[in-house]
């Protein structure tokens, strides 16, 4: 890297002209000289790539300026480590944030090309699963927007999360081939390559009686991590940050002796093992091999990222003792928690620090975001597996643990039970390394992602760790970027808002409050409703095109889109749908509100009950959608392969947003924020960010039902008997009987026995306990829908009052309270 004087001497290039005429000429030039096509024979994907390359040039100018500015001012950098970045398509996002949407659209129009058509050709980057990965993407955009210098670090998955198909109602997992034709947004950085080791032995050299003794890890396996960089553009291109993703390569791509001896498969063994590290997101971990691959992935990207961070710091500052002044590393959940042990290894073994100095620097540099209270989601690894793959790290984990447990016993007077709770090693049953405890203890800050979630962390999963370090836990309620989730995905509403309240909300989402005064304006309400209807027509057309199902855009669009998991309670929604189906058939004389129930989401490949829920949704849809006695009043649609691009169509079309998790189990949620921002009414429990949403939008503008977190805990503690609840609820009992007796699975009456028996026997997720309250809440939603003025007054207030949930606000809080970075 050049020194500051040399950097300052380089002239900055003049700003590029971005008129439609200039852009059109550059697109033709790129089409000719970068893609090798004449405009007369160019295909839509050629135009897409040429357009991206022209837009990318303008981003690069700002990218280099941003990097140079951080370097010259010695600004503190934030490094965001996440196993997921669900970035979605980048073209529209980049063009919009550059402020060139109309110019690019006009330029392409002059060439006979439709911008919307070619933008839709860009594949969704398959780099994430759900809320955690999309949050990371929103945060990267917001860090660039608010001026925080940042790198995101993750894995460049070739296939990422699976592509979901539905066959006969069942989820089928297929590889997602998003990189099949390359990625014009990324840049390979061959110079940023690091060796990553696994297995082997640890040698001790030097005199044990002196300070010269040190450990040398001699890995049995080694791979190379190579970086690919993607620029992340902030709003109005104030800053461009970097998303750096790692791919794995073998040190020896082919064992030539084995190949020449005829062992063609064995010759590629090392290559295949290395490539598996960056092949699939979340390999099924139900087998020992799956667990090992997942731990390898987590260490692979963590080690590469930390080596890169330390190299950059030493290049610029030359002294790792200043690391906490210039570097903040955020661990997004427990997936990168092994970074704590890896940082200790690098500081002690490679850079020759003593243990206490290395531990002090490590804790000052790291901070940790917890995303779950579910014990199974707080990762832990079998000690034998951890020690086999990472023997030196196992030594360091034990050394850290000894330091912490001595402090807990001697300074805090912890008893044996609390000692067991805070230990990095879970001694109950098979011994396991607790990654949540490692992330907590190795960080100076541990944050929750909603006020309720943060309070519950202190009381449940981290209660004794909180007692050990009472100032460490803090709250940073999640947010979403309003650029992606309002301006870009809902251009009709965006235009209406600009016309009605001006442009100030584009830079400060809380200025949306100006909309509040228009809820009583009948003309505005009519225009707001017209935008919603147009968005519903767009979704209806997508459903007809992809699935051959016709839905009525004038019906209520009731939407539940999220990862399929029992705690999110898609099952509660489906059971209530079955009960509503019975009521519509039994009481045809009533004035039923037409509804379309939309579901979308993926189930983990090894999660049996989640996959059964998908099958149940599709089986119920098959029966109800084809029953003429329903008269089209109720339809169910499960849209396969939920991703960011699909969400961008479903979110603006939602009338009702389903956020119905068992209270105390959802950390935050961000789908709730997206749909409310786009004018949907939320039906939900007091869980996650719903609590703060109710505070912001007003209790009269959200439909809350069911038990609170405290009531759930009390009911469990007092011996909850779900069978008694079911027998006391006629609608619930009839619905469960219909499901269990094969009404929706006539060729396999026992298909859903695991689901229904689970509710009768233990009902951990309180489906039966909350059912009647949920059904009553849904009927209150019906009544509100019939009063169009009341409905749109409430949904307009949701849009007006959701500005606080901008990820810009969240990032400013991280930057001020945790990272001490940015302006």
TrEMBL record:
<dbReference type="Pfam" id="PF00343">
    <property type="entry name" value="Phosphorylase"/>
</dbReference>
<keyword id="KW-0328">Glycosyltransferase</keyword>
<dbReference type="GO" id="GO:0005980">
    <property type="term" value="P:glycogen catabolic process"/>
</dbReference>
<keyword id="KW-0021">Allosteric enzyme</keyword>
<protein>
    <recommendedName>
        <fullName>Alpha-1,4 glucan phosphorylase</fullName>
        <ecNumber>2.4.1.1</ecNumber>
    </recommendedName>
</protein>
<comment type="similarity">
    <text>Belongs to the glycogen phosphorylase family.</text>
</comment>
<keyword id="KW-0963">Cytoplasm</keyword>
<dbReference type="InterPro" id="IPR011833">
    <property type="entry name" value="Glycg_phsphrylas"/>
</dbReference>
<feature type="modified residue" description="N6-(pyridoxal phosphate)lysine">
    <location>
        <position position="674"/>
    </location>
</feature>
<comment type="function">
    <text>Allosteric enzyme that catalyzes the rate-limiting step in glycogen catabolism, the phosphorolytic cleavage of glycogen to produce glucose-1-phosphate, and plays a central role in maintaining cellular and organismal glucose homeostasis.</text>
</comment>
<dbReference type="GO" id="GO:0030170">
    <property type="term" value="F:pyridoxal phosphate binding"/>
</dbReference>
<dbReference type="GO" id="GO:0005737">
    <property type="term" value="C:cytoplasm"/>
</dbReference>
<comment type="function">
    <text>Phosphorylase is an important allosteric enzyme in carbohydrate metabolism. Enzymes from different sources differ in their regulatory mechanisms and in their natural substrates. However, all known phosphorylases share catalytic and structural properties.</text>
</comment>
<keyword id="KW-0119">Carbohydrate metabolism</keyword>
<keyword id="KW-0808">Transferase</keyword>
<dbReference type="InterPro" id="IPR000811">
    <property type="entry name" value="Glyco_trans_35"/>
</dbReference>
<dbReference type="InterPro" id="IPR035090">
    <property type="entry name" value="Pyridoxal_P_attach_site"/>
</dbReference>
<keyword id="KW-0663">Pyridoxal phosphate</keyword>
<dbReference type="GO" id="GO:0008184">
    <property type="term" value="F:glycogen phosphorylase activity"/>
</dbReference>
């Amino acid at each position: 890297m050049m020194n500051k004087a040399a950097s300052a001497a380089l002239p900055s290039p003049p700003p590029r002209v971005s008129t439609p005429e200039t852009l059109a000429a550059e697109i033709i030039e790129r089409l000719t000289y970068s893609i090798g096509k004449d405009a007369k024979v160019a295909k839509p994907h050629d135009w897409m790539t040429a357009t991206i390359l022209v837009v990318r040039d303008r981003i690069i100018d700002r990218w280099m300026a941003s990097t140079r500015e951080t370097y010259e001012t010695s600004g503190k950098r934030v490094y965001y480590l996440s196993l997921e970045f669900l970035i979605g398509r980048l073209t529209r996002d980049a063009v919009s944030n550059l402020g060139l949407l109309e110019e690019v659209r006009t330029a392409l129009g002059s060439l006979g090309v439709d911008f919307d058509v070619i933008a839709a050709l860009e594949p969704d980057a398959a780099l994430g699963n759900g809320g955690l990965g999309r949050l990371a993407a929103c945060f990267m955009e917001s860090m660039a927007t608010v001026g925080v210098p940042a790198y995101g670090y993750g894995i460049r998955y070739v296939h990422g999360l699976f592509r979901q198909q539905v066959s006969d109602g069942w989820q089928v997992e297929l590889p997602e081939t998003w990189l099949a034709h390359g990625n014009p947004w990324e840049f390979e950085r061959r110079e940023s390559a690091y060796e990553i080791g696994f297995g082997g032995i640890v040698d001790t050299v030097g005199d044990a009686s002196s300070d010269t003794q040190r450990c040398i890890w001699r890995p049995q396996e080694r791979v190379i991590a190579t970086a690919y960089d993607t620029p992340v553009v902030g709003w109005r291109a104030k800053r461009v940050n970097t998303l750096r993703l790692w791919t794995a390569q073998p040190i020896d791509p082919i064992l030539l002796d084995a190949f020449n001896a005829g062992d063609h498969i064995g010759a590629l063994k090392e290559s295949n093992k290395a490539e598996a590290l960056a092949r699939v997101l979340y390999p099924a971990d139900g087998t020992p091999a799956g667990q090992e691959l997942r731990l390898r992935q987590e260490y692979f990207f963590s080690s590469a990222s930390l080596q890169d961070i330390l190299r950059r710091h030493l290049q610029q500052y030359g002294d790792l003792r200043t690391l906490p002044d210039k570097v903040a590393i955020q661990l997004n959940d427990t997936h990168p928690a092994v970074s704590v042990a890896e940082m200790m290894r690098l500081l002690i073994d490679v850079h020759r620090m003593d243990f206490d100095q290395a531990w002090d620097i490590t804790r000052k540099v790291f901070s940790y975001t917890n995303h779950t209270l579910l014990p199974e989601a707080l990762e832990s690894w079998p000690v034998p597996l951890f020690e086999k793959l990472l023997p030196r790290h196992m030594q360091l984990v034990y050394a850290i643990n000894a330091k912490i447990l001595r402090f807990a016993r001697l300074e805090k007077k912890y008893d044996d039970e609390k000692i067991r709770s805070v230990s990095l090693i879970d001694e109950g049953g098979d011994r396991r390394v607790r990654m949540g405890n490692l992330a907590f203890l190795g960080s100076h800050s541990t944050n929750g992602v909603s006020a309720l979630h943060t309070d519950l962390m202190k009381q449940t999963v981290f209660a004794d760790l909180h007692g050990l370090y009472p100032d460490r836990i803090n709250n940073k309620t999640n947010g979403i970027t309003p650029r992606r989730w309002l301006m870009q995905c809902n251009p009709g509403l965006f235009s209406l808002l600009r016309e009605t309240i001006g442009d100030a909300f584009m830079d400060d989402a809380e200025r949306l409050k100006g909309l509040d005064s228009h809820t009583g304006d009948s003309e505005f309400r009519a225009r707001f409703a017209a935008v919603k209807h147009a968005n519903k027509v767009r979704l209806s057309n997508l459903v007809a095109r992809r699935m051959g199902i016709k839905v009525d855009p004038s019906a209520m669009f009731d939407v539940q889109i999220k990862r399929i998991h029992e705690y999110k309670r898609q099952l509660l929604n489906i059971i209530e749908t079955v009960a509503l189906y019975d009521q519509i058939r039994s009481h045809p004389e009533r004035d039923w509100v037409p509804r379309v129930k939309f579901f979308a989401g993926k189930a983990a490949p090894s999660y049996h009950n989640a996959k059964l829920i998908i099958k149940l949704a599709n089986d119920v849809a098959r029966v109800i959608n084809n029953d003429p006695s329903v008269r089209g009043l109720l339809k169910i649609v499960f849209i396969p392969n939920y991703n960011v691009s699909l969400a961008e169509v479903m979110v603006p079309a939602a009338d009702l947003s389903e956020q119905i998790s068992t209270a105390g189990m959802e950390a935050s949620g961000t789908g709730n924020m997206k749909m409310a921002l786009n004018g949907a009414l939320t039906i939900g429990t007091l869980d996650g960010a719903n609590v703060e949403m109710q505070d912001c939008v007003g209790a009269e503008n959200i439909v809350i039902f069911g038990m609170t977190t405290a009531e759930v805990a009390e009911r469990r503690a007092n011996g909850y008997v779900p069978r008694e609840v079911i027998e006391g609820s006629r609608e619930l009992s009839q619905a469960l009987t219909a499901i269990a007796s094969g009404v929706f699975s006539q060729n396999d009456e026992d298909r859903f026995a695991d689901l229904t028996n689970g509710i009768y026997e233990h009902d951990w997720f309180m489906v039966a306990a909350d059912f009647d309250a949920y059904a009553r809440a849904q009927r209150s939603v019906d009544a509100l829908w019939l009063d169009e003025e009341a409905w749109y007054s409430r949904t307009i207030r949701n849009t007006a009052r959701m500005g606080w949930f901008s990820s810009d606000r969240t990032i400013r809080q991280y930057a001020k309270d945790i990272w001490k970075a940015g302006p």
